[in-house]
Design a protein that fits this description.
The chain has about 425 residues and is mainly beta. It is about 0% helix and about 35% strand. The protein has one helix at about 150; strands at about 1-5, 80-90, 95-100, 105-110, 110-115, 140-145, 155-165, 165-175, 185-190, 205-210, 215, 240-245, 265-270, 275-280, 285-290, 295-300, 335-340, 345-350, 365, 370-380, 380-390, 395-400, 410, 415-425. Strands 1-2-24-23-22 form a five-stranded antiparallel sheet, with no helix packed on it. The protein has a four-stranded antiparallel sheet with strand order 6-7-8-9, with no helix packed on it. A hairpin with a 6-residue loop joins strand 15 and strand 16. The longest helix has 4 residues, at about 150.
């Protein structure tokens, strides 16, 4: 181990999909003109401050719906910390989950799940993990412990599952054996439909809520021809889903009983969500990959429609307008915040620990394209400040997770990926 300083009714529309030249999570170009100030719909300027983001926006003609919705004030917490590299040599790790004994569960996208001790001893891959479609953005993805893990030893994970008619996001559960070498009683409890034949936009973050239910995100599967699935209730693509730990549909889901809707759906109109977390008040938040100039922070509420591909900031990766989209339409939820240019977000954590008191109440977001950790100050449901951390590392940050003791852990998405622990400066 090395230490280094440092309330709306969703509508289904049938619209012609736009032609697009699309790439991966980190594809974007910085074009356009500088924005002098943030303005609301009535042209009111945002409170004066020095915004953290000063590069030209990708979509310079688009205006935020309200002051402070983009380009938040730069803040500096003046926190100094060390980065302990607990383990390296991990192949594209996707998620980290602290275990009660201080060790860490880590997934690697090619299909491996490992336990790594707090001292950095990397265990052999756990047996019992089902086959994954390990290509492009696909593979073994997120992981979550059962709320009763200490008694039932149950683990949940998401992955891109190979299927006869393509592949798709699935969720499985299994019991960690007493010797911690394998997963037993493995069962697939959710399969997103329809299947599709590419290797992108699986979404795939998992989060257990205060209600004990499992929340799952999915992507729109990237291709232009697939986008409108995010607006339709007869499928699972571009959605947040809510299921019970056994895979059944719990009471309270907003579309249960509708013949035209999948009962697991909680919200719709999402592009590709790889960041999902509950805040200390029990509210569900997400950060999702938008188009070029349109990454979003959203507060998730049951039954709401978040717009994609009918409502979006940003543009196609090739620089063209998104033909189906406007920045606002009646009946769709606006993002709490958006980035233009994008950060390519993956993984998020509301920080509640004592190791870094200056960060308490902030949301931490991994950035793939921008290769840093982003901290947002959120007050009364609005972003009031933004700080960038770990920029000097130059690593694609895939996941950030807080351990029960308040320590922070990070995995980097690289061929030679690393597991980090952030600790107060020694």
């Amino acid at each position: 181990m090395r230490a280094t300083r440092l309330s709306l009714i969703p509508l289904a529309f049938t619209l012609a999909a736009a032609a697009c030249t699309d790439r991966s999570e980190e594809a974007a170009s910085d074009t356009g003109a500088d924005v002098a100030e943030q303005v609301g719909p009535a042209g009111q300027p945002a409170p004066e401050c020095e915004p953290l983001e000063t590069r030209p926006p990708n979509a310079p003609d688009q205006e935020p719906a309200f002051p402070g919705q983009t380009r938040a004030c730069a803040v500096d917490s003046n926190v100094t910390f060390d980065v302990d590299i607990i383990a390296s040599g991990l192949e594209h790790p996707w998620a980290v989950e602290p275990l009660p004994d201080g060790s860490l569960l880590v997934t690697e996208r090619p299909g491996r799940m490992r336990i790594i001790s707090a001292a950095g001893e990397v265990g052999a891959p756990l047996a019992g993990v089902p086959a994954v479609h390990a290509d492009g953005q696909g593979g073994l993805l997120d992981i979550a412990l059962s709320p009763d893990f200490e008694s039932d030893r149950t683990i949940f994970w998401s992955y891109s599952e190979p299927r006869d008619d393509g592949n798709g996001t699935s969720v499985a559960r299994g019991v960690l054996s007493e010797d911690r070498r394998r997963l037993e009683d493995v069962r697939v409890i959710f399969r997103a439909i329809p299947s599709y034949g590419n290797s992108a936009h699986y979404g795939s973050r998992l989060a257990f809520g205060p209600d004990g239910m499992l929340y799952i995100t999915t992507g729109d599967r990237f291709d232009t021809s697939m986008r409108m699935h995010a607006q339709r209730l007869d499928n699972h693509l571009g959605k947040v889903l809510r299921i019970a730990p056994d895979g059944s549909v719990p009471e309270g889901n907003p579309f249960t009983g509708r013949s035209d809707a999948r009962p697991e759906i909680w919200t719709l109109g999402h592009r590709n969500v790889q960041a999902l977390a509950f805040d200390p008040q029990g509210r569900l938040w997400m950060v999702e990959h938008g188009p070029q100039g349109g990454d979003e922070l959203n507060l998730i509420e049951a039954g709401q429609n978040y717009g994609w591909p009918l409502v979006s900031y940003g543009e196609e990766y090739g620089g063209e307008p998104i033909e189906t989209a406007e920045t606002a339409r009646p009946g769709y939820v606006q993002p709490v915040y958006y980035w233009d240019p994008v950060i390519a977000p993956s993984g998020m954590q509301w920080y509640t620990g004592d190791f870094f008191p200056e960060w308490q109440g902030s949301v931490l977001v991994g950035a793939l394209r921008e290769r840093r950790l982003v901290r947002l100050v959120v007050e009364d449901g609005r972003v009031t400040g933004e700080e960038h951390l770990l920029e000097n590392r130059g690593k694609r940050i895939r996941d950030v997770r807080q351990a029960p003791d308040g320590m922070l852990y990070i995995v980097t998405d690289e061929d030679d990926g690393e597991l980090w622990r952030l600790v107060p400066s020694r």
